[in-house]
Specification:
The chain has a single domain, classed as Bira Bifunctional Protein, Domain 2 (BirA Bifunctional Protein, domain 2, 2-Layer Sandwich). It is built from six helices and eleven strands. Helix 3 packs across helix 5. The two termini are 31 Å apart.
């Protein structure tokens, strides 16, 4: 029998909690896990290996315009404001990176297709120098018919398990985006995309696309919350 997939309720929290929870789930999950979340205030998450950052990001953080956090996954900086984030944990994912991205994104393509917004994979070469994740669209990303990168994704492998992070661009704040990246913000998602129901619709799409796996909505148990909070307080979760 395939492992049961776990769906977690959509959560809103600060960036350190969100990133630590994804890393913690990656370490301990034996079956696939999907969760959506939103961020308390605007956060800029930096990729796991993104060591250089412009000094004005630090200045914006000092002024309270953004908060900074390092992701356990790779990729470039992502501004989390007005969007929806997902984390998919997939034990035994295909080891070929491009195939893993293809299979791990198909449910998003299917879900947005059902909502009337067709998406396709990007074609830009990987390894671009831009600090901004949304400045280019590689085979890891999904682009809408207007050429806007609508979903940017990044991965982390650990002991044969895959964590795929993704940011779904919905309503990027124009002024803050320009402050952070010194370029105009991408266009918002079409108005007919229901922002409040999107997590539910995409969750249903995953369940349908991954029908070989039984899925259950299963919030964190009290003992799991306690275990995670101990790791979070100790700083060892990431």
């Amino acid at each position: 029998m395939p492992a049961t997939g776990r769906l977690l309720p959509t959560q809103q929290a600060d960036g350190h909690t969100q990133m630590a929870l994804d890393a913690w789930l990656l370490k301990r999950s034996n079956g696939p896990v999907l969760r959506f979340y939103r961020w308390d205030g605007p956060w800029l998450s930096l990729g796991r290996h993104q060591r250089h950052r412009p000094e004005h990001w630090n200045e914006l953080a000092r002024r309270g315009r953004i908060s900074l956090v390092q992701r356990p996954s790779g990729g470039r900086a992502v501004l989390h404001a007005g969007g929806l984030t997902y984390a998919l944990i997939w034990p035994d994912a295909p080891r070929r990176r491009q195939e893993a991205y293809r299979q791990a994104c198909q449910w998003l393509i299917d879900g947005f297709q059902d909502l009337g917004l067709p998406l396709h994979f990007g074609s830009d070469p990987a390894g671009a120098e831009a600090n901004n994740c949304f400045a280019s669209a590689t085979v890891a990303d999904l682009v809408d018919p207007c050429g806007v990168k609508r979903v940017g994704s990044a991965q982390r492998w650990q002991n044969g398990r895959l964590l795929q992070h993704g940011e779904i661009l919905l309503d990027p704040p124009a002024e803050l985006w320009e402050e952070v990246f010194e370029e105009a913000a991408p266009a918002a998602a079409p108005a007919w995309i229901n922002r409040l129901e999107l997590d539910q619709r995409l969750r249903q799409s995953l369940v349908q696309s991954w029908s070989h796996c039984p899925w259950q909505m299963q919030p964190l148990k009290a003992e799991e919350v306690q275990e995670f909070e101990v790791e979070l307080a100790s700083g060892s979760a990431l």
